[in-house]
Structures are given as structure tokens and as C-alpha cells.
Write a structure and sequence with these properties.
120 residues, alpha/beta, 2,3-Dihydroxybiphenyl 1,2-Dioxygenase, domain 1, four-stranded mixed sheet, 2 helices, globular
Length: 120
């Protein structure tokens, strides 16, 4: 059985989110002015749907505790450098994990927690 994962997020400002994710190397594969405005983003086999929504209750925008969106990349150093060059603040810089991964972490503008990782 084939499977894939597509994450959909509902930011308060679609343009800001698209700028953030393209700064991390994502490309825009689809864009709809709406309403509601919607963008499809892709980085390799990772797909994120971004649907602007100012009607989401702010309590529902809280960062989910114990959850992170993990994106595996083949060149963690280039990905990290792209993020820094785009002015994205790193929550944690490159760290070598004892289980053989290297990663860095960021929060997107709406608080979604992202970990970019690669095998050493």
C-alpha cells in the first residue's frame, strides 16, 4: 500500500507563511486567491497546504504540546543556511543526536514547531 503525508495549516496571514516556508526551500506548487486563499507548498516529497483563516478561534491556534513536524532533508547544512539567510530565527541550531541524526528546529510565524533533520 502506498501512502504519503500532507500537512495542512491554517495561518492568520497566508503571504507571511508562504514567505517563511519558501525561505526554508519550499516551492509554491499552487496558489488560489480564494476566498479562502490557499497555497500548496512542496519540498521534495513533503507537502504542506496553507489555508488562510482568520476565523479560527485563537484557543485552537495554541501550539500542540508534544508535537513537531519533522522534515527529513538530504543536506541539513544547506537547509539551515537557507533558513538563516532568509532571516528565520532558529529555535535550536544544528545538534548532533546520539541516535545518528543532525537537526535544527524553528517555529513558523503561527507557532507550528518544525524540526529539520538528516542522517549524519
Amino acid at each position: 500500500m502506498a501512502a504519503s503525508l500532507r500537512v495542512e495549516i491554517f495561518p492568520s496571514d497566508l503571504d507571511r507563511s508562504v514567505r517563511f516556508y519558501t525561505g526554508l526551500g519550499f516551492i509554491v506548487t499552487g496558489l488560489s486567491e480564494g476566498p479562502p486563499a490557499y497555497a500548496s507548498l512542496r519540498l521534495g516529497d513533503v507537502h504542506i497546504g496553507v489555508r488562510e483563516s482568520d476565523m479560527v478561534d485563537s484557543a485552537l491556534r495554541a501550539i500542540p504540546a508534544g508535537t513537531e513536524i519533522v522534515i527529513e532533508v538530504d543536506d541539513i547544512h544547506a537547509c539551515r543556511d537557507d533558513a538563516v539567510d532568509a532571516g528565520i530565527a532558529l529555535n535550536s541550531d544544528l545538534e548532533h543526536r546520539p541516535w545518528g541524526l543532525v537537526d535544527f528546529r524553528v517555529y513558523d510565524p503561527d507557532g507550528y514547531y518544525l524540526r529539520f533533520t538528516s542522517r549524519r
